Amino acid sequence: MLTAKEIRDSFKNFFESKGHHIVPSAPMVIKDDPTLMFTNAGMNQFKDIILGNHPAKYQRVADSQKCLRVSGKHNDLEEVGHDTYHHTMFEMLGNWSFGDYFKKEAISWAWEYLVEVLKLNPEHLYATVFEGSPEEGLSRDDEAASYWEQFLPKDHIINGNKHDNFWEMGDTGPCGPCSEIHIDLRPAEERAKISGRDLVNHDHPQVIEIWNLVFMQYNRKADGSLEPLPAKVIDTGMGFERLCMALQGKTSNYDTDVFQPILKAIAAMSGTEYGKDKQQDIAMRVIADHIRTIAFSITDGQLPSNAKAGYVIRRILRRAVRYGYTFLGQKQAFMYKLLPVLIDNMGEAYPELVAQKTLIEKVIKEEEESFLRTLETGIRLLDKTMEDTRASGKTEISGKDAFTLYDTFGFPLDLTELILRENEMTVNIEEFNEEMQQQKQRARNAAAIETGDWIVLKEGTTEFVGYDYTEYEASILRYRQIKQKNQTLYQIVLDYTPFYAESGGQVGDTGVLVSEFETIEVIDTKKENNLPIHITKKLPEHPEAPMMACVDTDKRAACAANHSATHLLDAALREVLGEHIEQKGSLVTPDSLRFDFSHFQKVTDEEIRKVEHIVNARVRANIPLKEYRNIPIEEAKELGAIALFGEKYGDKVRVIQFGSSIEFCGGTHVAATGNIGMVKIMSESSVAAGVRRIEAYTGARVEELLDTVQDTLSDLKALFNNAPDLGIAIRKYLDENAGLKKQVEDFMKEKEAALKERLLKNIQEIHGIKVVKFCAPLPAEVVKNIAFQLRGEITENLFFVAGSIDNGKPMLTVMLSDNLVAGGLKAGNLVKEAAKLIQGGGGGQPHFATAGGKNTDGLPAAVEKVLELAGI
């Protein structure tokens, strides 16, 4: 029996023998096609060639392509796990011809490979051909049918409708008739009852399509019309997992060696056995499928997140975690532990899995742990909600309850719906949406500002001149009063302004408006409807007078230094940590900078230092600023500019370049990197799963920091008599301290031993009970050690009671032998009552208990009270 690896290799070898160039799989995550988030068909990476936009490097190509179908038209997510042949990620074996061979060769080679190479029984094979579409002016694909008749009887050639046999990936783009190859995997007795022909395309789990031969000859235009492609294309796609099922004699994709190693690992991990319980089997199939999707997505550069493709991956991961949690008892992160078996199974064909093993493990583990915390709380609350809802005779939970789960505990609505479906319940979606709208309204109200009417002095718009000037003559266009948080402020709009308004993570400029009559302080500058607004605490007495708008140049320079430093930092992080680094937010102020970025684990001290060294080398290099102002966005992309997180860009953009650092940016920057002075990273921390944060200082703040460090070192040296080597001096003192501590410990052990011997000599025997009692200023640990040592030596009738003082606090200790406990005495009860005499309390086990208190004078009485309570 061929293994999955051998089947994959045999396909490539066969088509290589037919003159095909074997190409690697394209990434599953698509970065440069706005119409798709993921590769969902083998043709995606060849779209430009098929459309004739680029010439084909090779006219014949074959590959095994990673595909993902969980969004848009092809969305199999909800079926995955519940049946045996749908998957999120799957491999598609394909052979391609770009203007070379067409239907005849595609069909004959498909037959040769399946029947002559793989030895599939031809009696179990069926082929479908396009029946035609009169409304589109398309006739039956008689050409394909005639070629199939050379290999199959006519009753094994089936006409298929437009839905099944006219292949289109979307509403527009390459398309054409196709011919599907189906296989009947049922046992002979079932085939005798009903022909496989009658089950083709009827969702029978053992009569399935394994290969689709697409004859692309049209391009679907936006108006729905078809136009011939520049060159005819053969695009075939064979489901690798289904082919393995057929060749390995299985009735489920999950029974093949593609999935069995993963399923066995899941079973071992959860103490279950695949095939014994329906719900557990579904959970195991979900996990086995999803771990492949998640691992390959991360490998291709898509980390789980709350947006777009990242959200799809996070949702898949959380679906798997939820199934493991609910049906397999997996309360801790577990999926990341499946990676070794996945790599062993697929790493040879996809070496990128091996190369990025650590990254994949870290991301999955962190995501699992984060979601499990949410899941634990959310499921408990949802269970209670379902119970209460059923008790009231209903099967629909309120949207308010679902929203509370979402809003307070981060429990996703789609997960709530999934759990409810499994319990034959629903949620009121309208109520949920109403709650969502109300929350948005509350957020708006919380930020409400009471504004007065604009007082318009003259019409006009603002022109920002701040890239070139920090002082500029201006006039007020309009102003108004605002009230926010019981504070009255004023908003002023100028015709020209050098003030940078807060955006792109950079805070707004401050400064003054100066006229011949007065000086008005500008405390902030913000944007409203893309209009720079200057915020002041008072209005000019002569608002119509011309004035100079003057930016606080010290703060502006500090801001510019920090903003330019973020660009250098971004570039250095990519160099040190990898190209997966993406900016997730920033804050640029005059005092410091904050930079959030996607990364899977804590950045080490060594990596931080390496990043710092790269950045500061570029600061010392005094790289001049290259500014590209108002250039077409396509030109900016050609420069290699990196778009920043959360920014919106128009047709014309501004690009900032410092050497290899090229980014879209509207902020203010230094004229050359030397103006930054120096960069010092102050902290690195986690913001969220997969997002790290760096905070740093530049320029004068670094000087202040160095001054503080130097002063601290000077003070430390003074404490150590100005030793020339502070490290040696500190280590010497630490060693001496450790030596003295050891001496004290040895002394205490001697004292402990001496006290124990003295106590043994002074045992009082009362009514057959050996009573050991004393009061002394001793550490609690010493008293405990003596008590246990005595219990080991006196195995019967031992009654130990001690009053001790540790760091000025009284402590009562009682130890009993087992036979006294068996006789009804309980150490915990005794100390609890006697501790009242030392104004304290305590307890413990039946044989050993302690109590602390406040009144040391009451210790002797407390010791006697213990004996009294015990009847001794």
From TrEMBL:
Zn(2+) binds at H563, H567, C665, H669. Its main location: cytoplasm. Residues 422-449, 730-757 form a coiled coil. CDD domains: AlaRS_core. Residues 2-708 form the Alanyl-transfer RNA synthetases family profile domain. Its EC number is 6.1.1.7. It comes from the Bacteria. One of its GO terms (molecular function) is alanine-tRNA ligase activity. Transmembrane segments: none annotated. Pfam families: DHHA1 (PF02272), tRNA-synt_2c (PF01411), tRNA_SAD (PF07973). PROSITE patterns: AA_TRNA_LIGASE_II_ALA. InterPro entries: aa-tRNA-synth_II/BPL/LPL, Ala-tRNA-lgiase_IIc, Ala-tRNA-ligase_IIc_anticod-bd, Ala-tRNA-synth_IIc_core, Ala-tRNA-synth_IIc_N, Ala-tRNA_ligase, Ala_tRNA_ligase_euk/bac, DHHA1_dom. It catalyses: tRNA(Ala) + L-alanine + ATP = L-alanyl-tRNA(Ala) + AMP + diphosphate. It is found in: Cytoplasm. Belongs to the class-II aminoacyl-tRNA synthetase family. Catalyzes the attachment of alanine to tRNA(Ala) in a two-step reaction: alanine is first activated by ATP to form Ala-AMP and then transferred to the acceptor end of tRNA(Ala). Also edits incorrectly charged Ser-tRNA(Ala) and Gly-tRNA(Ala) via its editing domain. NCBIfam families: alaS (TIGR00344). This is Alanine--tRNA ligase. The lineage of its organism: Bacteria, Pseudomonadati, Bacteroidota, Bacteroidia, Bacteroidales. The gene is alaS.
